[in-house]
Amino acid sequence: MPALPLSFEPNLGQTDPRVKFLARSRGMTLFLTSTETVLLTKRCAVRMRLVGANRDAEARGVDLLPGRHHSLIGRDLARWRVDAPTYARVRSRDVYPGVDVLYYGTEDRQLEYDFVVAPGADPGVIRLAFDGVDRLRLDAAGDLVLHVGGTSLRFGKPHVYQTSPEGRRAVAAAWSLTDARSAGFRLGAYDTREALVIDPTVALATYVGGSGTDQAFAIALGNDGSVFVTGNTTSVNFPTTVGSLASSARGGVDAFVVRLDSMFASSLYSTFIGGSGDDAGRGIAVDALGNAYVTGFTTSPDFPTTPGSFQPTRPAGEAAGVADAFVVKLNPQGSALVYGTYLGGTASDVGLAIAVDTTGTAYVTGGTLSADFPVTLGASQPTPGGDRDAFVARLSSAGTALLFSTFVGGAGTDVGNAITIDVTGAAYVTGSTTCAAAPCSTGTDFPTTPGVSGALRPPGEPPGVTDAFVVKLGPLGLLVYSTFLGGSGADEGLGIVVDAGGNAIVTGGTASANFPSTAGFPPFIAALQAFLTKLDPAASSVLFSRPVPTSTTPTGQTRDALPTVPSLALGISQDTGGRLYLAGSEFRGGAAQTDAFVIQFSPAGTSPTAEFFVGGTGDDFGLALVVDAPGNNVFLTGQTSSVAGLATAGVVQPTFGGGVDGFVAKVSGFNGGLTDESGSTSGCFIATAAFGSPLAREVSVLRAFRDHILARSATGRAFVRAYYRLSPAIARVVARHETLRAVARSTLHPLIVVARISLASPRKAFVGFALAWSALVALIVMLAFAHRSTAARRGVFAATFVVALSLTVAAGLLDLDRPAGSPPAPSPAPAAPSVTALSRSREPRSEPAEVEVPATRQDVPRPAAIQQPEVEHHEIDVRRVEQWLLAPGTARVRPTVYSGQLGVQIESGLADGVLTTEGFTVTEPKAAAELGIASGDRIVSINGYPPAGGAFASFVLMQRDPDRNTIKIQLDRAGVRMQRSMTLR
C-alpha cells in the first residue's frame, strides 16, 4: 500500500501554540515555528534553528492540496479539529531581511528547504545552529557533516547561482563553520542587483567529452556502485582508457561507453564503439556481473560485430549511409565484446532503449522504416503497419538468436522510446504513434486491445499529431495489452518503469489540456508539460495521472503570457520503496536557457520534492537517470554547454572539453535518513515521550540544561552520551503506556525544577546534574522490574537512586581538576533527519520586468477568425539546423506587450516575432521566408505542440532519434490555416 504523502497543515490548536505548521506521515510529525524546524519520529525530537532570525516571520501555506485533516482525539468536542487545510509547501517570508525560506515536505523523514535571497539582501546573515551535536566538520568534498554519537548528518556543498535574461551564472560558495555548533556560507563575488539562490544538492558532477560535440543519452548503475554511460562523440580526443576495446576514433561520429567509479574520480574504462561511418549509443543496461549491454544505431559497414552473432553483417542490398540498430555486450573491463550484432533491415533502423534480465537476455526497442526488419515466427505483429513502426526484440544471452521480435504500430508513424521488464520476463514499452488520416478518433490504425483505458484515440485529434502508447508483451513476445495515452494535443511517452504489483508508470511530455488526469492533482494545460501516469496491471484504468510541476517564474521575467515553462521528462527510475524519480529538461524561455532537472515523487505520485536543477552557466539537458536501491542517490546524465558551474572537485574530468560535452551528476540526499552504527534509525528521548511534544516547556528546560550545564564537564558529556544510547528503547516503551508516561512525568518534574535552578545559578549546576542523572538511572532500572509489585519497584528505585547519586558525586569530585577556562567540548544532540539543506526555489523573488511595445506592432494585422482552415503542405530541406526557431541558446528573449497581452519578443536566426498564448506572430521572417512564412503569420503549433514547447521538444527528440527529422509547422495567415513541413538533414 503506498505511503501517505507528507503535507503541511496549519496549527489550529492541535499542538503547542508556537508551532505555525505541522505535518504527519508514516510515524513522523514535523513542526515548523518561526525560526525552528523540529521533527518527531519514533518518539524522537530533532531541532535545527535559524540563528538571529525574525521570530515574527509570516509563514503561509503554498499550493493548497485537495485533502483535509481531521483531529478527533479525546472526548472533549471543543478540542476536535476538522477540515484543516493542507499544503504542499510552506513559505516563511523575511526570516532575515530580504531572505525567505520555502519548506517542502516529502515522505520518509526528509525535509528540503530553500533560501531565496532578494536583490540587495545580505546572505551572510543566514546561520544554521544544531543543538547539542558532538561536532561539525567539513569533509574533502566540501560537505558539512554533523556527528551525533554513532550517527551523522550530511549537508551537500552549496551550489549558488543567479539567473538573469543572459542566462544562469554560478557563484563560488562553500560552508563556513561559525562556531562549534553552527554554520553559514562563504560566497564569492555576485551581482547584488539579482536574486541569489543557494543549492547544495549536487554531490558529484563530471564532464564527459573532448573538444568536439559529446552527448550522453543513457546511464546505468552497477552492483558495485560504478556508473555506466553511453552516447556519441565527434571528439578525436575523447578521453578513452588504455586497454579498452577501441581507444581511438574510427569515424566522424562514434558511440562511446564510459564506466566511472562510484566517486567519479576515475574511469574504470572508456572506449569508442564504431566503424568508419556514424555510430551512436542510445540505451544501456548492466547485468549483475558488470557486463554492459548497449543499443543505438550505426551507418558503418564495418561496425564491430562478433562471429556467430545474430546479424554479423549489414543486410544485403542496404544503401550506403542508411542506419541499422545495433546491440553489443561489453565485458566488465570494457576491453572486449562478448557479442556485437546489427539489428535491422534494408531501410533505416534505430535502437533507442534496452533492458536486461537476470539470465542476460536483452530486450530492445526503437523505430524502423524497414519492411524487412527481422521478426520471429508467431510475432504478435509480423508486418509493418505504416511508414515507420516501433519494434520490440529479445536477444539471447549469447547474442546469437532472437527469442522474439515484432513490429508495433499502425498506419502512421510509431516509435518505441523506452522499455522495462518485470520479474516474469514481460516487456513494457512506451513511445509515440500518429494517426495517418482523419478521422483519428476511431483509433483503429494502432493495435490496441479490448478493455484498456485508452482503446481509441482522443476525439478531435488532428492527423499527424502524436499520442503516447503503452504496450505489454509477454516473455514470448505475445501482446498482453496495448493502449493509447494522451489527449487531443501532442503526447510523447519517453520513460517507463514497472512496480512490484505489475503497474506501469510512464512519463514524457504532453500539450493536451485533456490529457488523462486524476482527482487531487492540478489539471493539464495546452502547453508542453511533463507528465507522470500510472496504469493498473491490465491497463484498464489510470491509477493516477498528473502534470510534473516545474518552474513557472524565472527570476526577473514576466511569465503571464507563458503559463508554464516548457518541460519534457526523458527518464524515470524507482527505488526499492517504490518512490519515483524523473529527469528531464525545461526551456526557460525568458532566459533563453535550458536546465536539467530531477524530481522525486511518492509511489502514489504525490509529494514532489523541490525541483533539483543540475547544470552551470550554459544550456544543460537532462536525458536519462538511474537511482540506487535505497533511493539515496540519483545519477543523471545528459549534455551541456556550461563552461563553468557544473563539475565538482576531484572528479575525472573537472573542466569543459569544448563545444558540447556530456555530463554525469550524482544528486544526493533524497531519502538519506539518519542511521546509527547498526544501520537503523536512531531513537529518541524519554522526556519527549513523557510530555508528548518536543516543544513542551519541560523538554525545552531539560534541553537547555543539557547544553549549558552538562556540556561544560567531562562527566556531564559522558552522561549525555550514555543517555542517547539508552533512552531510545526506554522512550518507545514509555510512549506506548500511559501509566509509564505518568510515572516518567512524576519522576522528571523535580529534575526540571532542579534544572531551572541550575540554569539560574550555575554554581548549583552540579547538584542538579547529580540528582538528574541518579533519578534517570533509577528510573531505567525500575522499568526493568516492571513485572514486580509496586512496593518492590519503589524499593528498587530508591536503592538505585542512592547508589547512582553516590557514584556521581565521586565522579564529579574527580572531574573538578579540569583546568579553568578549558573549552567545553560540543555536546551530543538528538539524531537529526536527512535534510537537503538548500535546494533551488521554484519561486525566486523577482522585480517587475520592464515592458516594451515593439515598433512593428502597428504593421502586423490581427488574424481574422478562422472559418474553414485551408492546409497547404510544403516540403523543404533545411540544412542549417542552427537557424531553427527557438533552438535553446540561439534566441534573444525579452518581455513585451502585444495586442494587450503580455508576451516575449524573440530574435532568432530563423525569425523574429512575439510569442503569446495565442502563438508566435512573425515580425521578421529572415530564413523562415524559405519555408513560405511571411511577416504577420502566426505560428500556432510545431509538431502538434504550442510554438515554444514544440520547438523545444522537437529539438530534444530529434537529437536522440535521427529519423524524427520532419518538423511540421502549422500557421495562421489572416484566417487561413496552413501547414509547412521541413526536413532537417
What does this protein structure show overall?
- The protein is 13% helix and 38% strand.
- The strands form eleven sheets. Strands 1-2-3-4-5-10-17-16 form an eight-stranded antiparallel β-sheet, with no helix packed on it.
- The protein starts with 7 loop residues before the first strand and ends with a strand.
- Mean pLDDT is 77; it is low at 1-5, 68-74, 551-563, 672-683, 813-869 and 878-889.
Characterize the largest beta sheet: strand count, sense, and whether it forms a barrel.
8 strands, antiparallel
Backbone CA Rg = 31 Å
Tally of individual helices = 7
How many DSSP-defined strands? 55
Spatial strand arrangement across the major sheet: 1-2-3-4-5-10-17-16
Low-confidence sequence ranges: 1-5, 68-74, 551-563, 672-683, 813-869, 878-889
Mean pLDDT: 77
What is the CA–CA distance across the termini?
A: 50 Å
How much of the sequence lies in strands comes to: 35-45%
Helix content: 10-25%
Shape: globular
Which secondary-structure class do the elements indicate?
mainly beta
List the helices and strands and how they pair.
Blueprint: E1 8-10, E2 21-25, E3 28-32, E4 36-41, E5 45-50, E6 58-71, E7 81-96, E8 99-106, E9 110-117, E10 128-130, E11 135-138, E12 144-148, E13 151-155, E14 160-164, E15 167-171, E16 173-179, E17 182-187, E18 196-198, E19 202-208, E20 214-221, E21 227-233, E22 254-260, E23 267-273, E24 279-286, E25 292-298, E26 324-330, E27 337-343, E28 349-356, E29 362-368, E30 389-395, E31 402-408, E32 414-421, E33 427-434, E34 466-473, E35 479-485, E36 491-498, E37 504-510, E38 529-535, E39 542-547, E40 567-574, E41 580-588, E42 593-601, E43 612-614, E44 620-627, E45 633-640, E46 661-668, H1 686-691, H2 697-708, H3 714-736, H4 738-760, H5 765-784, H6 790-815, E47 834-836, E48 875-878, E49 892-898, E50 901-907, E51 912-916, E52 919-924, E53 938-942, H7 947-960, E54 966-973, E55 976-984
Helix pairs in contact: 2-4, 3-4, 4-5, 5-6
